[in-house]
Amino acid sequence: MTGSIYKAYDIRGIYPTELNEDIAYRVGRALVLFLDKTNPRVAVGRDARLSSPALAEALIRGITDQGGTVIDIGLAATPTLYFAVAHHGYDAGVEVTASHNPKEYNGLKIVRERAISIGLENGLVQIREIAERNKFPPTVHGGIIHTDLTREHVEHDMKFAGKVDGFTIAADPANAMGVLYIEELFHHVPGNLVRMNFKLDGTFPAHQADPLQDETLADLKKKVVESGADLGIATDGDGDRIFFIDEKGETVPQPIIRGVMAQMFLRRFPGATICYDIRPGKITHEMIVAGGGVPVKTRVGHTFIKQKMRETGAVFAGESSGHFFTNINGACYETPTIVILKLLEWMTEQKKPLSELVAQYKKYWNSGEINFVVQEKDAAIQKITEHFAGATVDLLDGLTIETNDFWFNLRKSNTEPLLRLNLEAVNKEIGEEKVREINSILGLS
Q: Which SS3 state, helix, strand or coil, does residue 141 take?
């Protein structure tokens, strides 16, 4: 086995050269030993990749051979797997998926009770060590229960729905797992659903299932305009990230969606804590404060955000990459269906086109994520720190610099010789100037 497939938040690699059935089997057995519980109940779901059935079957054999009971939920989006674990009180869950990665990849996302994510900092290292040791004590064989929880999941999330008008909505789940909950959701919500790429296909024939890459949204943007849709929805490979397009075919910035969601939740939970990752934007903080909430910054990554939600009792959190989390009875996990419902509720109340509603919040210029190839990452960050010595400095996650006119976060990649820059400014001129300045400091211009 190779340690390179063990990432910060999950297991992921190219199938079958890096991740294969043997590894999945051993991880299944290792997970049961890690849980250290007699006959633990483990939910298993999978995405539509061509390698997922074989990997899921091997994983399930591993869990049951080590004495666990598997609740096999079959084809399911990752949020449905989280719901299964949290709502039914299972001891753990595993989604066989490589999320937004290309078709040749696959992976395992692992959670324990209450859908608590297991990453390198809280258990994945131990699971890896047990799996690589490959010595498993004999035990009584466990059983398998087969069920489908997508409908139950959506019906549960409908409890958060307010009044919703019958909008026209174009959706592109990229032949991936968002198909399941979007289709089910619009059995309950009025309106006209314009479907794009709704046939599950693990080869992703239309485009990669990664809405963070703007080129994957091009067809959806055209469809929104052509069909006169009020809203466009795009989801990623395992359905845990979601992006929105306004009626003019423009992507709605995630910091604004995050702020809108914060204010909607603060109506229901006045004065509550709202978490968001440290990457800009500033508008999220302002909207939380305006809604009477308590803003709390977190490290980047869903594991860290969920952990901070549990620590602070936050009712909602949002990450710049399109993850949105709700705290439901102490279980913190992605709830894209609830986000869709609350956005439609907001649009129903405001009775204006989405582009007009979000225009007031487009106050700052945002660079998006810029990757710099840098071999000596620590030395480069030190140079940037010294250059902006007069600014406010935050070291929560990488380097965050803040001044009155611009602010940015600079983080090291865990796996590549890259520095990731996210910068905002009060206007485009200052923002572009500061990006050029950072380029120059790093010796890249």
A: coil
- Give the list of residues 6+ apart from residue 161 with CB closer than 8 angstroms, or none: 188, 189, 341, 345
pLDDT tens for each residue of 31-56: 999 999 999 999 999 999 999 999 99
**What does DSSP assign to residue 251?**
B
The CATH classification of domain 168-245, taken from the options 3.40.120.10, 2.102.10.10, 3.40.50.300, 3.40.50.150 = 3.40.120.10
- Which residues sit opposite 73 in a β-bridge? none
DSSP run (H or E) holding 24: helix 21-35
Q: Domain spanning 254-352 has what CATH number? A: 3.40.120.10
| Superfamily of domain 365-441, CATH level 4 | Alpha-D-phosphohexomutase, C-terminal domain (3.30.310.50)
Provide DSSP, 278-327: SSS-HHHHHHHHHTT-EEEEE-SSHHHHHHHHHHHT-SEEE-TTS-EEEE
Q: What is the pLDDT of residues 219-278, one digit of tens each?
A: 999 999 999 999 999 999 999 999 999 999 999 999 999 999 999 999 999 999 999 999
- Tell me the catalytic residues: 99
Handedness of CA 404, 388, 281, 309 (dihedral sign): negative
